Amino acid sequence: MSYLHACLLRKRTMLIVRSFTILLLSCIAFKLACCFSSNISSLKALPLVGNLDFEHVHEASKDFGNRYQLIPLAVLHPKSVSDIASAIRHIWMMGPHSQLTVAARGRGHSLQGQAQTRNGIVIRMESLHPQKLQVHTVEDVPAPYVDVSGGELWINILHETLKYGLAPKSWTDYLHLTVGGTLSNAGISGQAFRHGPQISNVHQLEVVTGKGEILNCSERQNSDLFHGVLGGLGQFGIITRARIALEAAPTMVKWVRVLYQDFSAFIKDQERLISADNKLDYVEGFVIINRTGLLNNWRLSFTPEDPLQASQFKSDGRTLYCLEVAKYYFKLDNKDVISQGVKETLSELSYISSTLFTSEVTYEAFLDRVHVSEVKLRSKGQWEVPHPWLNLLVPRSTVKEFAKGVFGNILTDTSNGPVIVYPVNKAKWDNRTSAVTPEEDIFYLVAILTSAVPGKDDGVEQILKRNQRILEFSEAAGIGLKQYLPHYTTREEWRSHFGAKWDNFVRRKSRYDPLAILAPGHRIFPKAPYDQFTPISLSSDYNLPLSG
Ligand SMILES: Cc1cc2nc3c(=O)[nH]c(=O)nc-3n(C[C@H](O)[C@H](O)[C@H](O)COP(=O)(O)OP(=O)(O)OC[C@H]3O[C@@H](n4cnc5c(N)ncnc54)[C@H](O)[C@@H]3O)c2cc1C
Known about the structure:
With 548 residues, this protein is an alpha+beta fold. Among the domains are: 1-45; 134-248, Uridine Diphospho-n-acetylenolpyruvylglucosamine Reductase, domain 3 (2-Layer Sandwich), CATH 3.30.465.10; 252-367, Vanillyl-alcohol Oxidase, Chain A, domain 3 (3-Layer(aba) Sandwich); 387-483, 3-Layer(aba) Sandwich (Vanillyl-alcohol Oxidase, Chain A, domain 3). It contains 16 helices and 19 strands. It has a nine-stranded antiparallel β-sheet. Strands 5, 6, 7, 8, 9 and 10 form a six-stranded antiparallel β-sheet that branches. Strands 1-2-4-3 form a four-stranded mixed β-sheet, with helices on one face. Strand 5 (134-136) and strand 6 (145-149) form a beta hairpin. It is globular, with a radius of gyration of 26 Å. It binds flavin-adenine dinucleotide.
């Protein structure tokens, strides 16, 4: 009898607990639904020139990395800067308890959801065209520049500025990226050794902060914001306009590739070429591991200096290093003089003599070269695959040790994407910006750009494990690298990434985006009350949960 009684009692208790849990969950769901619908209705009431789309949000939940997916509440298609300011100001006014965040999206070429937000607002920056691109030539100003929207693609800037015989000085290898997207990182390519990254070639920005203020900034005006935003991973404001330095645009490019078997010889020549007295305009390089018929493939777009010897060269089973350089020239230049100059420069280098290949292309075709590969890969369905890429900045003092441990050892195949290696001069980077680099006069960009192509041996998981091994090896060997396009999951890792710049980074966040509304996809700052980011807590060892 007492046993039956106990059973009944337990059943009743379980029923009460279950009912209570259901009630609690329903309350939470109801509260969330209320919160959502009040978010939606208040956002719908915003007076915008453009529009907020609550339905077609899936495109904004994807990126080039193809591994992370956060579904936003809405996508803002801004038609004016005030659309962006109104939306952010509205969320700022909702205060710390609203969970709404805002992610600016360029072309979504991020790798790990950096341009995404869960249940927040994605701003499609490409919709923002407040005015046409405005090119200012030497007839109007002492040094030419162009004013562009933060959502403009670099390829469009190239096309427009070329009409005036001008072009930006510093590029990325691929131009179908947006101004705001690359300036939030750095924007590095083979011209960076001379001109610095793209963030070193900007005169002025218009920015919408995390409080919805529209501010102009430059070296002279709001300089703290200006430097903070450059390389600032979108944390302090949305770049709505940028003034970019221009130079006279060359018309043609002499493009050269040569091979090395020895990494030390390869980087010795690269470093010679990035020194001040070098006459070349572009210096890059890449690693080739165990490729069959490599030089035959080059023949499609390059001409061998010595066709017979080149045809006898075998790349199979070898780890090789390709130096890639370019010399720009103008219509009125004497082509023979240019060729002679390049020849002289090459004669000082120690590459494998049978591997000299050259090509002549227009400046435009040279800069847009990666787009040709994009078109090919798209046609084979190999563009929209996962891209577990790893981009690193490796100090000069440890790059040989890095190469010894990684190339041909941890990394044993380069057939599923290039591995780019080239040095840049730190002197061309402005230390006041948020961009993080190794503290040496020269450091190397090492970009391991492997695609996870279906049906090939290496799947995403294997590639990610390999990347992890590279990072662990580097840590153990004291390589002292910094990630470019960084991705971390803990506050401690972010702090260590920024190193001496961390306190300033946190201070700027508390000043320009105190509620942590912006760029939640990096998961550096959770959306939190104002005083959690005040400078008081800068040095204390607080560990905030990750947002996003
Ligand atoms: C094929 C390929 C080649 C590449 N080559 C190079 C290279 O040679 N050199 C190099 O440096 N990088 C290179 N990149 C990386 C590129 O710089 C990044 O992908 C960068 O994120 C730019 O892409 P996006 O314009 O699509 O920006 P998104 O991926 O959309 O955004 C990137 C970050 O910037 C923020 N953001 C976007 N717009 C703004 C804005 N207006 N204001 C503030 N924040 C904003 C986003 O919220 C996000 O955090 C390459 C990428 C690809 C896919």
